[in-house]
Structures are given as C-alpha cells and as structure tokens.
Design brief:
By secondary structure, this protein is an alpha+beta fold. Helix content is 18%, strand content 30%. It is built from three helices and 15 strands. Helix 1 (2-17) packs antiparallel against helix 3. The longest helix has 24 residues, at 228-251. The chain is globular, with a radius of gyration of 19 Å. 36% of the residues are buried.
C-alpha cells in the first residue's frame, strides 16, 4: 500500500508541476541562477560531488510547491545563505510569515548576511516560532504552516505564495533528490528531498529582469504543503485504486 500511495503522490506532483514553472532569465547578470546552482556540484573544491550534468535545470526542474511549508518532526530547520548578488543586498531580508496573517513575520537573515551564513528556525507544538537571528526572536503563528518572504528591515515585500504578490512568482524553488553538493563553507553532503533551494527576484516581476539570483538560500528539514488541487488529484487516485482493489476481492 505504501508503494501505491507513493506512486499516486508522484503522479499528482508530476501533473501539477507545470503550474509552478516560472521562466528564469539566463545569460544576464553574472552569475546567473543556473551558474549559481551548478557551482554547488562537482568542481576542484568538491571532486566527490555529483556531476554538474545532474544539477537541476532552472527552467525545467522547478519544485511543485504552493509557497507554504512546514518543519519536519524534529521541530527545527536550518537556512544557509548560498549567494546574494542584488543591488539591494545591503537592505534585503529573508524570513517566514504566517499565511493566515502575512503581516506576522519572523526574520531569519539580514541584508548583510554572507555566503555560508546560517540561521536556525524552531517551532513548538503551540506554533511559536523562534529564530536565532540577531539576539533571537519569536513569533506566534496560527498553525504550523508558514511561507518565506524577501523584504526589508520593516518586514515582507515579496512572498513565496504568488497570490500575495498579485499572482506573480517572486521565488522559484528546487527540491533535492539525493545529489551530493557542497554549500559555501560547508562539507559536501546529500541534498535530500526535505531540503529546498529558494531563489528570489527582488524587483516586482512584471518589470524585473527575472533572473531569480538576487538571493539564493538552501533550507533543510521542511515539507512543502500541497496545493488543494494536488490533494484532490491524490485523493481521486487513491479512491480509484481502492475501488479497483475492492472489485478484485469481489471477483475472487
């Protein structure tokens, strides 16, 4: 039964993946997003890393995510800065917000954060989120779900949920599938399925260069919250399989 559920879940994600494909401009400002991600793969700095040819294509292999996430069972997650090349890098901030109240947020990085810098996020069973940024901070959310934002010291400007940006995707995401990579200043390790790379555009997308390399962050130990449409597809698939199983039992 676990295999059946996994198969249907995979089909649901494949069916919904095209919804999340956002065009990324390449060969503009250097390094472009593809070069940023490729730099995590095999090189002189990491001869044992996975081949660059195994790196996700930034236009074809985006993760099917709704912009909402949850920390896994440990209640803790680490965010690692990969690169920040935006003209606004001194002012940009990164953090999480409550999807039920986007004005409620918790900062994880400041504009001055450098490559390899890390921030620890924790959540309690009462949905109190805690960050070790600066002198530490807390925010009481309404559930265990949260989104990520790119903003200023005053809070979010752009959100991981496109609907909060007027329908525009200000962030593209890539999910690990077992490749071995090397983050800045860290030993090489596995990029697993509970870890994502989030790549941001820090100008409003309709008038931006759409290169999505203004801030690139690696976040681990999180799970994407599926879109309702994906859940419905998954439910229909499981219902169909269950009905088939019942018919087979009846026939036998």
């Amino acid at each position: 039964m676990k295999k059946i559920k996994s198969l249907v879940a995979s089909l649901a994600l494949i069916a919904s993946a095209s919804v999340f494909a956002t065009p990324v401009t390449l060969n503009g400002e250097a390094p472009d997003l593809q070069a940023v991600i490729n730099s995590l793969y095999q090189s002189a700095a990491c001869p044992t890393c996975s081949l660059v040819t195994q790196a996700p294509n930034v236009n074809l292999n985006q993760a099917a995510e709704s912009g909402q996430f949850q920390i896994e069972a440990s209640g803790g997650s680490i965010a690692t800065m990969i690169i920040e090349v935006a003209g606004n890098s001194a002012f940009n901030t990164f953090g999480i917000y409550d999807p039920n109240n986007p004005a409620n947020f918790l900062q994880l990085f400041s504009g001055g954060s450098s490559s390899g810098g890390q921030s620890i996020l924790q959540v309690s069973d009462t949905f109190l989120f805690t960050s070790n940024f600066g002198f530490g901070g807390t925010a009481q959310f309404t559930s265990q779900s949260f989104g990520y934002y790119l903003g200023t010291a005053n809070g979010p400007t752009f959100y991981s949920q496109a609907e909060l940006n007027g329908g525009n995707d200000q962030m593209v995401a890539f999910q690990g599938d077992g490749d071995k990579i090397k983050l800045p200043g860290k030993p090489a390790g596995i990029w697993g399925s509970s870890s994502f790379i989030f790549a941001w555009e820090d100008q409003s997308v309709p008038g931006s260069d759409k290169d999505y390399q203004d801030m690139v962050v690696y976040v681990e130990s999180i799970t994407a919250v599926p879109e309702p449409g994906s859940l419905a597809l998954l439910g229909l698939g499981l219902a169909g399989l269950a009905a088939t199983a019942r018919r087979k039992r009846t026939a036998s």
